Amino acid sequence: ENLANKIAAGEVVQRPESVVKELLENSIDAEAKNIELIIKQAGKSLIQVCDDGIGMTEEDAILCIQKHATSKISTLSDLEAIRTLGFRGEALSSIAAVSQLEIRTQTAQQEIGTLIRIEKEGEIIKEKVSVNKGTCVSVKNLFYNTPARRKFLKSDATELKHIIDTFNRIALAHPEINFKFYNNDSLVNDYKSGTLEERIAQIFADNMLDALIPVREKTEYLSLHGYIGKPSIFRKSKGEQYLYLNKRFVFNKHINHAVFTAFENILEKGDYPFFVLFMEIDPSKVDVNIHPSKLEVKFDDEKDVYNFVLAVIKKSIGSHDL
Ligand code: ADP
Ligand code: MG
């Protein structure tokens, strides 16, 4: 663990929320059906994610904490058509450089699991342990060795808010997965697997179920599905517009604008429509998400995408009672 590693880590790991995001995404990539997030002190002292996914062999577990170890890219063209969430093999090594990392993991084929722990001097401790199939990654004392970064962290309340937002954004995109979230030993969220509508109700409020208009449309290279909210659940501030591009949560002001425009005659000043929309597009037609924490995306055919969304949302609004 050297200076270059710590600097690189700063790019991926900006705050406890970034760790939460990377660990949850890894569990999803590992095909977990149950994912549990445990944090203490807003993630500053502990972030732990446990899953029942495919797990890792001992070799994989040691490899995954080395720089640029990823099992998700095998050829160069994969890079252009990334479908999994992780693709750079940088997260775990970066997290390991700025925290006390421990991994417990076991594959379905193994009789016994592996525990890997990084000690302060970068020494790797390895043990055989009995665990359930799947992986538990725990990240203690984030930035303990980079005091300047540690000092930059905001209050527990603010850091917790970021974690909750990310947890919900990810849970929203995966209603087929059970998610649990413990904060300082108390269970805050327990989302059972179900439909997208059910997940929306779990995260936001039960009364949303009657106020959702389905959206579903598809062209040759573009599809859009999800829900938009009726006027009864218009929001008074921005921030509850959930757009996912190929399953990743993103911001794109053009898409937001297209949806807002579709609602134009119905929106009163200060109203913002609620929506959860999933767009699938050929990955080669979007500016690849080079930076891990960058949520902004750019489409090659911005105008086409805008017009598509506008038309689809207008049609959905038009064919439902508001
Ligand atoms: P990436 O996700 O970009 O491949 P990471 O640093 O996040 O890079 O993870 C490195 C590798 O470690 C992954 O490619 C995967 O093989 C393995 N890995 C990480 N987390 C898990 C997990 N929860 N279950 C199984 N394998 C995992
Ligand atoms: Mg990853």
In the CATH hierarchy, the architecture of the largest domain is: 2-Layer Sandwich
Q: Which series of helices and strands comes N to C?
A: HHEEHHHEEEEHHEEHEEEEHEH
Mean of all residue-level pLDDT scores = 88
As a percent range, the share of helical residues equals 25-40%
Give the CATH superfamily of the largest domain: Histidine kinase-like ATPase, C-terminal domain
How would a crystallographer describe the biggest sheet?
8 strands, mixed
- The fraction of residues assigned to DSSP E strands is 25-35%
CA-based gyration radius: 21 Å
* Quaternary status: single chain
Q: Number of helix segments?
A: 10
Q: Which structural class do you get from the secondary structure elements?
A: alpha+beta
When the domains are counted, the total is: 2
- CATH topology descriptor of the largest domain: Heat Shock Protein 90
- Attached small molecules: adenosine-5'-diphosphate, magnesium ion
Q: What is the CATH class name of the largest domain? A: Alpha Beta
Low-confidence stretches: 79-84
User: How many DSSP E strands?
Assistant: 13
Distance between the termini: 58 Å
Overall geometry: elongated
What topology, given as strand order, has the largest sheet? 5-4-3-6-2-1-7-8
